[in-house]
Structures are given as C-alpha cells and as structure tokens.
Amino acid sequence: MSHTEAVLERKVVQHMTSTIDAPVTTTLSPDYTERARTVARVVEREANTIESDATITSAVYDALVEQELFWLLVPTEFGGGGKGIVEALKVIEEISRADGSTGWALMANAFSTGVAVGFMNDVGAREMFDGPARGITAGMIMPTGKAVRVDGGYRVTGKFQFGSGSAHASWIGAGFVVHDDAGNPVLDANGGPDCRIGFLARTDVEFLGNWDVMGMVGTGSYDYLVDDVFVPDRFTMETFSTVPVRPEPVYKLGLLGIGVGGHAPVALGIATRALEEVVRIASKKNRPGYDGAVGESQLFLRDFAKNEALLQAARAYVYQAHGDAEDSARRGEDITDEQRARLRQVTTWVQEVAGEIVQFAHRWAGSQAIRNPSALGRCSRDIAVATQHMLVDQISLVEAAKAIVPGYDHRS
Asked: Full-prediction pTM beyond 0.90?
C-alpha cells in the first residue's frame, strides 16, 4: 500500500466513524457547479501528485468531502444533494477540466453511489448513506464474479478489475452471477443468468495495487479480490434492473443511463482543458515559417475555430440529450427508446470529438505537449484511455442507430 493510499484509508475510517455533532466550518454554495470550481482549484494544485501517486491526494479527498460532491446524486432525504443528471454532469465536467483522472474517479464514486441508492433496497441504502458517515462506493459492478445463495444473502468470490476511486471508497461493488451448489448458473425469470451487484465493506476486499497504465493514472483503478465473503441481501441489487426503488426522476434513466452518461462530461472537461492549454502555449510559441507567434497564424486560428465549434456542439448535445430524458421522467412520462438511444449515441460520440480536439491541441503545442509534468500531456494520455472504455465502444452507435433511424423515415 502506498503512502497516499494509507493516508486516504485512514481518512475513510475517520469519515466512517465521525459523529453527527461534528462542527460545520464551511458555508456551502447551493450551486453544485460552484462547489466543483472550489474543489477544482485544489485539484489543479495537486494534479501532478495525483498522477505520480496513481490516486487522488488527501487534500483533494478532503475538498470533495467538504463540498459534499461524492453525494450529489443522493436524495435530500438522506442528506445528499438530490441533484438531477444534468447538474451532476456539469460537476463532473468542471472537475475533469482540472484533471481528467480526478473527474473520472469522482464520476465513478458519485454515479455508482447514485445507482446504489436508486436501485438497492431501502434498508441497505439507508445503512450505507443515511447518516453522518455517508458511504462512498467504487468498484466493478458488471457480473464477473460468482456467488452462491445462502441464508440471508450470498457468498461472493471473484477477481475484479478497474476499481476507479477505490482508494478512498468505503464500500466496494462486486458484480456476480448466482450459481447453485453444483456450480451451475441460476437462471432468472426471463431465462437468463441471475446477475447481481453486492456492496462490501472495504475491509472485506483485498486490493492488488496493480494500476500501471499510460493515462487516467490518477483514477486508482486497482484490481481487487473477494474471497468467499458473505454479502447480506440488503446490500445487493439486480445488475440489469430497470425499475428504481426511489421516486426521484434521475433514477428513471436506469443503471445504464446514469452509469454510462457520466463518461461524457469527463471527455468534455479534458477537451476544454486541452484548448485552454494550447491557447496559452501557442500565444508564446514561435516557429520557423511564421511571422509571429504560432497562435496568431491563420492556420492555427482556422483549426482552433473548427475544434472549438466541435466542443460547443458536443457539449450542447450532451446536456440536451440528458436534459430531454430527465424532463420526460420529471413529467411522469416514460423515457422513450429514442431518448435512451441518444444517451448512448452522444456519450460515445463525444469521446471521438474530444479525441480530435486533444489531438489538435497536441499537434500545435509541439514539444511542450510531450514534456512531464504537463497538463496537456495528461490530456493526451487521459483521453487515449477514456476512448477505450467498453461502455463507449463503437458498437453502441450501431445499437443507438436502430432507435434513431426510424425517426428519419417518413415514407410510411
């Protein structure tokens, strides 16, 4: 365990054992995006250390807790922010602009926490999140582990990957397929494998600490082991549930709508930071063949205008698609197949857009994009990893098109 991980674990324990009488020393803004800007200033100062330590620093953890960003999707009834998906996405974009890894880790924590509250049974959710030591979740929720049904719950075993934000999480998710005593998968009512998610106390998980990658280094996406651990029913939920247990409109987006959508603002934040960095660099950069600074050349200005337009268009579509779906849910209407398809479409598409924008910035920044430490260098590495996530694979565009194409066919 690294020094940073050890410090964060101590802070997690302190947070879990805090009392409701702890004094409040900070007046919080009702605007969560403003809270995110407050945290972003700390993140910017800590970004180099975050990357070198492969997880967020103690100072950033403290700022996120102080501004209560881990719980922005938790209902106000539980003492959380009770925010909708659009407001939550804006928070993630702001933190990701400061540092892609921190934005990704917060997204993993806050959005998995939102999923747990919205789809787990009420007793378990209240135990985890309703109190002074509100839980923070992380971990792989896809059903890669195995479990057997026992009295009152499940015994879970498995090796899991990509526990983003796990160094400072108090509850770790583990997706599993239920098996019978003979080792055969148990089938659900639809004839498919019975897939579930369990949330375990971090003390029941063995972290392997083997996160060694080219980008998104600071997410702390460690592998971890769960060895025959009992998980009570109240801390489990169906993996592919489509029916929330809470009434808040955001939960009607479903597990995919919440879990997948969080990747879009990470890409937006990284792309925005790349443009900020290249403008700063190009304004002072001189090269043979240019009359003045590279940033004043017609070639740069033309390319910048095109890429900045792509960013504006992508941002508008991300918030429009999610806002439309959430508005339908708020009116008590079902979210349509086309609306769900557009959530998948825009989340994958924005990764491509962000990749193009960062590549533009990387090319024009020259050698300043390859030196370490470098904010633009981090953008290049982080977006290269973000585009590889399975939830934004190109096949998602094919699936989305099936529900979008009929809207353009007016022949019938």
From this structure: yes
